[in-house]
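Pilot study result, target chain (123 residues):
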Amino acid sequence: MNSKAPLFLIEFLIMLLVFSVSCAICLKVFSKAELISLENELRDDAIIETQNIAEKIKGTDSFEHLGAAFDGEKWVIDKGNYHILITKKESSHPLLCIAEIEAADKNGTELFSFEVSYQKEAV
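Predicted structure:
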């Protein structure tokens, strides 16, 4: 009689190979999903912080209260994982001011930017 043990072992090894490959694929997918989640969390935090800064600028017409360091060209706020850069821009109207607010990650890659317009107090 022929033994069926070698056939069973070959089938077992093939199934073991299939499960190990699928496990490796799943681990890669889950690690990529976690990385994407962390990037989105960073972006969400930066969006909330820049919105708060834009509201402070619009309400006070000043950059001094933001806790930003002025480097001669723009104001820089370091938040650890990201930086917020605020640049004043020229406006065609004498009582209207424009500031560009940009968020960049710690490597300097821009996450997003937007402009905020605010009114100067009339003297």
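One observation from the pilot: Helices lie at 5-60. A full batch analysis is planned for the follow-on phase.
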